[in-house]
Design a protein that fits this description.
This protein is 81% helix and 0% strand. The protein is mostly helical. The longest helix is centred in the C-terminal third of the chain and has 51 residues, at 110-160.
Length: 161
């Protein structure tokens, strides 16, 4: 088979538009490896296909996603302890810094004490909303990991058939 410029141009156009099939892509990969003329005529595609070949040679550990998940999530039995401690410390600080001095000092009015209480409450609500977003993210990450494991199991079953 010779170097058919029209055929190759059509394959390259299909590839860049995302409409090529696997056989056409294999043909482009082999042309990129074997033909110097292809490398000269299509340097961008050759560089891209070369990077894909190099990417395929990179070995990643089989348990990479599990390792990342373990490092970024907390164990189920430890999730409430840090949250409880943190909220307790924040409430104690609020009590010590704003509410107790306001009640002991006769210069403060009831309105100022109420305002200090409301500001403390708003700060704690803000803190808890941010923690809620973090917990939601961890739950979504856990769900993603479960689905990824299911997909891996299905693909290994399909590949073994």
């Amino acid at each position: 088979m010779g170097y058919d410029q029209q055929h190759i141009s059509k394959l390259v156009e299909l590839f860049w538009s995302g409409e090529s099939n696997t056989d056409q892509e294999k043909e482009l990969h082999s042309l990129s490896l074997e033909s110097v003329r292809f490398q000269v005529d299509y340097p961008e595609l050759h560089a891209y296909l070369e990077s894909i070949r190099e990417y395929k040679t990179i070995d990643t550990p089989n348990n990479l996603s599990q390792t990342i998940l373990n490092k970024t999530t907390r164990k189920k039995n430890n999730t409430l302890k840090p949250v409880t401690w943190f909220l307790g410390i924040a409430a104690t600080l609020a009590l010590v810094l704003w509410i107790l001095p306001a009640q002991q000092n006769p210069d403060y009015t009831d309105e100022e004490v109420q305002q200090a209480y409301n500001e403390t409450k708003q700060a704690l609500f803000l803190l808890s909303s941010k923690m809620e977003k973090g917990n939601n993210y961890v739950l979504k990450l856990g769900e993603f990991d479960k689905n990824q494991k299911k997909l891996k199991q299905k693909t290994t079953k399909n590949n073994s058939k």
